[in-house]
Amino acid sequence: MFSKKYVVGPSDADQNLNAKISTLFVYMQDVAMEHAEQLGIGKENTMDKGMMWVVTRTALTIYRLPKYLEEVIVTTYPGDDMKFIYPRYYNIKDKHGNLLVIASATWMVLNKSTHTVNFNPFNGKVLPSEHMEKEEPLPGRLAPSEVSLIDTRKVRNSDVDINNHLNNTRYIEYITDSHDNEFYNKHSIHHLTIEYKKEIKINQKVEIYSNNANPEYIQARVDGDTCFEVSIDYR
């Protein structure tokens, strides 16, 4: 188990002084990568050997968003390995120990050149799985819905990550940017599930589609191919 303290800074908060949804994903990505280094499955044993960690699905439930300048503790730990799928759990608490967010994700290790799954990246090493009483169930497949185009984005240099494709936290920004401030003054995200289906590269045009309902089903396409899908429950 690995925990880290954060303070919600000016660039982390929205117009209502709540932490952005993308901020939560940044925190979770950071602690997952730092914990991987501690467990000996980080850069030296992945990127330096022609492999890379990729997240395939993430789900989170928000009980309360952290506020601007609030101190929070973000905790992560691995679940039970499922052959080539590596589950990971997260929670975010305030400084008094109150639970604010729970989340879960599934990760895989890919060959960096071929983007195929590495079925035994750590020579049989099993990660030390843990479980807590309150956990977000692992995300499953999403049910498609009728959708219409609501936004388009072009991937810029600042959007790509160390693997040279659209960072998973940017996906969340693309999604939330598809609605305006007035929408978020009336709606708050309670639960979100995202499935990453295909990498998105620099200079590609991303088309965002929605069923304009609650729960909202969102689909992002590049050249007609679905690259990620999202389900969002609003309060």
State the major sheet. Answer: 10 strands, antiparallel
β-strand number: 10
How many H/I helices?
3
Low-confidence stretches: none
User: Rg to the nearest angstrom?
Assistant: 17 Å
Helix content: 10-25%
Q: What is the chain-wise order of helices and strands? A: EHEEEEEHHEEEE
Note the beta-strand portion: 35-45%
Q: Structural class per helix/strand content? A: mainly beta
Strand order of the largest sheet: 1-3-4-5-2-7-10-9-8-6
* Rounded mean pLDDT score: 93
Overview of the structural elements:
The protein starts with a strand and ends with a strand. The longest helix is centred in the first third of the chain and has 18 residues. Helices cover 14% and strands 37% of the residues. It contains three helices and ten strands. The chain has a ten-stranded antiparallel β-sheet with strand order 1-3-4-5-2-7-10-9-8-6, with helices on one face. The protein is globular, with a radius of gyration of 17 Å. Strand 9 and strand 10 form a beta hairpin. Helix 1 runs antiparallel to helix 2. With 235 residues, the chain is mainly beta.
Which key features would you list for this structure?
single chain; mainly beta; 14% helix
Topology summary:
Elements: E1 2-7, H1 21-38, E2 51-62, E3 71-78, E4 86-94, E5 99-111, E6 148-154, H2 168-176, H3 181-186, E7 189-196, E8 205-210, E9 216-222, E10 225-234
Summarize the structure.
The protein has 235 residues and is mainly beta. It contains three helices and ten strands, in the order E-H-E-E-E-E-E-H-H-E-E-E-E.
